[in-house]
Amino acid sequence: MTAIVEKLLGCQEPSISYKIRTKVLDEDAHSLAITALREEIKHSPRVQSLLHPPEGMARIAQHVYRKFAGAHWVLASLADIGTPPGDPRIAPQAELVYACWLHPRHVQDLLVLDGRVRKCASQEGNALYSLITLGFADQRVEQLADILMNTQ
Fold this sequence. Notes:
Layout: H1 3-9, H2 14-24, H3 32-42, H4 45-51, H5 55-60, H6 71-80, H7 91-101, H8 104-108, E1 111-113, E2 116-118, H9 122-133, H10 139-150
Antiparallel strand pairs: 1-2
Helix pairs in contact: 2-3, 6-7, 6-9, 7-9, 9-10
């Protein structure tokens, strides 16, 4: 094992250990040890700060897509660091994301130039990844997938 991998495995942040163990060392993501590590992630200071930002920051993050503070980015971060699925504390953020990206105005306000839709796929794409990974997929993910596919 390389020195950098050993150093990262010694990190106190459980999400770093999770990434190294599952993505670099190919440990089984469903093993008891990794499942326990994901529970540590769930209760880590990083997840706590994502779900409960300081009061001033919470007021700033009014829009779902506000960079790094809005619900869209909070879900993307939680999914990326290995937060286990089904945490009920995440449900309000998931609902905000669904409401924003499925809102009729968002869906209808697409820019079309020369018969081609001009749209970045990151909004619906990140939302799909996050909602599925975090265990909040329902029939609405199919709507997000349809929007994504129809605008490409």
